[in-house]
Amino acid sequence: MSLTAPRTDVVRRAEGARVFDSAVLPPAGHFVDGAFRDAPDADRLDVVDPTSEEVITRVAQGTAADVDVAVAAAQRARAPWARLTPKERSELLHAVADRIAQHRDVLVMLESANTGKPVSVARDDVDGTIDTFRFMAGALRATTSLAAGDYAKDHLSVILREPLGVVGVVTPWNYPLLMAAWKLAPILAAGNTVVIKPSEQTPLTTLKFAELVADLLPAGVLNVVTGLGPVVGEALAAHPDIDMIALTGSVGSGRAVARAAAESLKRVHLELGGKAPVVVFEDADLDLAATSLRAASFYNSGQECGAACRVLVHESVADAFVERLVAQVRELVVGEPAAGEDVEVGPLVSRAHYDRVLGHLEQAVVEGARVAVGGGAAEGTGFFVEPTVLVDVPATAACTVEEIFGPVVTVETFADEDEAVERANGVRLGLSASVWTNDARRSHAVAARLDAGTVWVNSHLVLANEVPWGGFKGSGYGRDLSIYALDDYSRTKHVMHNHGR
Ligand code: NAD
Question: How far does the centroid of ligand 1 lie from the alpha carbon of residue 346, in Å?
């Protein structure tokens, strides 16, 4: 289905170009207690290459019984892992980072084949994974707390930082390895053991990660169970022997996990959807904003929770800005990952997601939006959608409030600062936002008023391991990255000694 005749050429790989070597696939089965345990009779899930639409391999469809076995292994491993000194755990996490670095190319190939992401993006993901483990390996040795001392008469207070125990993790398909690393590194650094369920659509790099680090981590510290969210994910969330559940995913899955976790009153950590407003004032550098959005809106085909997807631009510069943005979008190179390093935008992850994004485009036009560039499917095999800019978008249209999660940017206009802030905050999601202005007062004032866990000023989608990432409102709670993530996966205990007579 296409709203307009496709105008975007998809760059295809050269005849015979190497796409994928099946020799690098991880072993079959769940990774539990330090080894892969295949269940030959288990139901299987197809793992599809979204570029060729072909099945790459099939993985085990886990059950609640598989979760029980994995949780038991994680429980057995927790005490010895928690007893390691910070230095010992740090050395193991550095070894994990080194091992990933040694196998960077294999992980890039697997990630790109399974998700359709350009090689440059898959490389960023693997490099980010390495850096996350290195950061947490360092940070865990430098944690601080309130100084021990007498805070009540004749009573010495000591604050201990302890692991929580076993943490369950559920990850999405857009950055499979990186999102796993954002959880695993701080969880393991804080002294917890873990059972992780990767997305059923993109389990390969998580399984490969387990294979690569199997001889580095003690058995049971890391366990991977593949399968469906409502089965394996909910079993983790509900499990009485899991102390915390951490999910990166959609708002609906976040609700399901929080509900399932309620009975056991376990801690919940949710990194959910985003709908990042990009507020462009009349004094902004429009060229900088447009060139920045070329990457920040279309990176990973827009399948990015922080993507710069909803532009609010001052009415006096709207035409000038849209002209610049459209010029950038027309230049984007859409193609198969194996077509070369120049490819900036690959296919969407699955047929179902492709149909969803195209449905959003159709609905947007029905609601009054105008297609400035793109607008539909690109031709040929693979789940390719044209990079799209929608203008004249009514403020209440579904495309301005719902997460589309594809290569689509909407543009609305505003008349003054108060209106810009009110409209930017007028959605249920609050993960990230950006403000574009050269006015110092405005850059502080507007950033402070925006309801988002991250606000960039004259930039968008720049992340670093030292600083936290996470949402407000419907985008969830808890923080990934930085020492704030280490805190989230730890508990503090106050021990008070009476030393008076
Ligand atoms: P999804 O919610 O469909 O799936 C995420 C994971 O949740 C998968 O492993 C899935 O199997 C599991 N799941 C599904 N239903 C479940 C249930 N009932 N109980 C337990 N687990 C369940 O999300 P997705 O489509 O894989 O990923 C895209 C979403 O993730 C987007 O909304 C995006 O914004 C969000 N995301 C957020 C961040 C962030 O840092 N905030 C990062 C990446 C992606």
Answer: 20
